[in-house]
C-alpha cells in the first residue's frame, strides 16, 4: 500500500469482493504497517475452516503465492521482524525471478507456531490484452528486457499524463508535461548525465560524439516510478 493511491481503497475492496476475495489486508513491508494483523487473521480463518481437525499438532504451514515481484518474500521477512525480531530469511529484489524454487519452511511466529513457504511468482500463460501486459511489465512482474524498457517507459509516460501526475516535469527539469517519450528520455539522460560515446562516420573519417543514453534514461524513469517517487498511481 506504500505505492498505491488509497483514495481508491473502497473501490479496490469492492472489486476484489466481486472476485470472491473477502479477506483483504493493506500492508506496507517497509514500515511493517498492518503486518501484525496477518497472523491473527490467518489463524482465525484456519480454526474456523471445516477442514481444521487437529488434536495435537498445533503448527500451521502456509504457502505464500502471487504474481512475480509482488512482495511475497518481503511479507515473510516483515513478519519475522515483527513477531520474532529476526532478519531476512528470503531474498528480495526489485526484479521478478529472485525466488526460483519453493523454499524450506520459514518460521514467522512462535505463538501460534506458524511457518510460511515462499514460492516463485506465477503468471497466467496467456495475458488477456496488450495493456494488461504493459501494466504487469510496469509493475515489474515481467522482466523489462522481454517487453523493452523503451516500450515500458512510453507506457509509463502515457499513464502519468493520463492521471495528471506531472511530478516528472520538475524532477527532470522539463519545461512542461510532454507526450513525446523520446524528448522526455533525452531530458532525463542529459539531466542525470547518462550519455554514451558513439562513432559517427563523416567525410573526414570517424568522429566520436556524446549522445544521450536512451536505454539508461528509460531504466531510470521506470525504477523511479517503482520506488513511488513519481507519485502514487493506480494502473487499474
Shape: elongated
Q: How many E strands?
A: 5
How much of the sequence lies in strands comes to 5-15%
**Any idea what the radius of gyration is?**
22 Å
SSE arrangement, N to C? HHEHEEHHHHHEEH
- Poorly predicted runs are none
| Structural class label | alpha+beta
Protein name: Mitochondrial ribosome-associated GTPase 1 isoform X2
Organism: Podarcis lilfordi (Lilford's wall lizard)
Keywords: GTP-binding, Nucleotide-binding
Domain G: 62-130
Overview of the molecule:
The protein starts with 8 loop residues before the first helix and ends in a 10-residue tail after the last helix. Strand 4 and strand 5 form a beta hairpin. 38% of the residues lie in helices and 13% in strands. It is of the alpha+beta class. The chain has a three-stranded mixed β-sheet with strand order 1-3-2, with helices on one face. Strands 4-5 form a two-stranded antiparallel sheet.
Amino acid at each position: 500500500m506504500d505505492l498505491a493511491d488509497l483514495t481508491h481503497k473502497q473501490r479496490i475492496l469492492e472489486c476484489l469482493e466481486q472476485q470472491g476475495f473477502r479477506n483483504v489486508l493493506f500492508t506496507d513491508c517497509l514500515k511493517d504497517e498492518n503486518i501484525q494483523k496477518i497472523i491473527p487473521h490467518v489463524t482465525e480463518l484456519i480454526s474456523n475452516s471445516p477442514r481444521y481437525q487437529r488434536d495435537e499438532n498445533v503448527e500451521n504451514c502456509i504457502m505464500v503465492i502471487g504474481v512475480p515481484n509482488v512482495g511475497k518474500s518481503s511479507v515473510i521477512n516483515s513478519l519475522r521482524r515483527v513477531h520474532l525480531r529476526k532478519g531476512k530469511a528470503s531474498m528480495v529484489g526489485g526484479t521478478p525471478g529472485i525466488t526460483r524454487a519453493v523454499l524450506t519452511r520459514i518460521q514467522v511466529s512462535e505463538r501460534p507456531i506458524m511457518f510460511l513457504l515462499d514460492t516463485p511468482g506465477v503468471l497466467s500463460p496467456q495475458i488477456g490484452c496488450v495493456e494488461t501486459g504493459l501494466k504487469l511489465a510496469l509493475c515489474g512482474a515481467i522482466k523489462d528486457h522481454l517487453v523493452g524498457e523503451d516500450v515500458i517507459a512510453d507506457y509509463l509516460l502515457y499513464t502519468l499524463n493520463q492521471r495528471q501526475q506531472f511530478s516528472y516535469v520538475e524532477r527532470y527539469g522539463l519545461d512542461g508535461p510532454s507526450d513525446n517519450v523520446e524528448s522526455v528520455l533525452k531530458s532525463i539522460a542529459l539531466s542525470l548525465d547518462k550519455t554514451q560515446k558513439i562513432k559517427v562516420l563523416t567525410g573526414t573519417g570517424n568522429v566520436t560524439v556524446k549522445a544521450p543514453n536512451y536505454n539508461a534514461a528509460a531504466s531510470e524513469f521506470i525504477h523511479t516510478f517503482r520506488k513511488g517517487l513519481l507519485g502514487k498511481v493506480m494502473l487499474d
